[in-house]
Amino acid sequence: MNESAPTGPVRTKRWALRLDLFEEEDVTKVHAVLDTGDNTLESRTEARRNPHDPPVPEIGDEYAAGRALVELGHLLLRSGMADATANDRSGSA
User: Fold this and answer.
1) Are 39 and 79 in contact (CB under 8 A)?
2) Which residues contact 30 (CB under 8 A, 6 or more apart)?
3) Residue 78: which pLDDT band, with cuts at 50, 70 and 90?
4) Where is the composition biased (Basic and acidic residues) (predicted)?
5) Rounded to whole angstroms, how far apart are CA atoms 67 and 37?
6) Domains of the chain and CATH, by start
7) What pLDDT, in 10s, does the model give residues 9-36?
8) Residue 17's beta-bridge partner residues?
9) What is the Cα gyration radius of the chain?
10) Measured between alpha carbons, how far is residue 69 from residues 16, 30, 39, 53, 85 in Å?
C-alpha cells in the first residue's frame, strides 16, 4: 500500500479553551469559552451537590466542567451545520 504525500499546504490552527470554575457552598458553576479564531462560543453550567453526599469539591468540578464541554460541543455542531447550510446556499446561487 502506497501512501502519497499531501499535495497542498497543511493547514494548522490552534483553538483556545478556557474553563473558569466557581464554587459557592454546594454549587459549582462553570463559564467555558472556546475561541476558534473565527468564532467564540460560550457555555455556562452548574452542578449541585446532593445534600446526602459528602462534600468532595473535585466531583462538582468534574460534573460542571463536563456539562459545559458537552454544551460547547452541541454549540459547535450547530455552528458547523449553520455554516454548511449557508455555504451550500451560496454555492447554488
Assistant:
1) yes
2) 19, 20, 21, 22, 43, 44, 45, 46, 64, 65, 67, 68
3) very high
4) 41-52
5) 23
6) 16-91 (3.30.160.240)
7) 999 999 999 999 999 999 999 999 999 9
8) 34
9) 20
10) 13, 10, 16, 24, 24
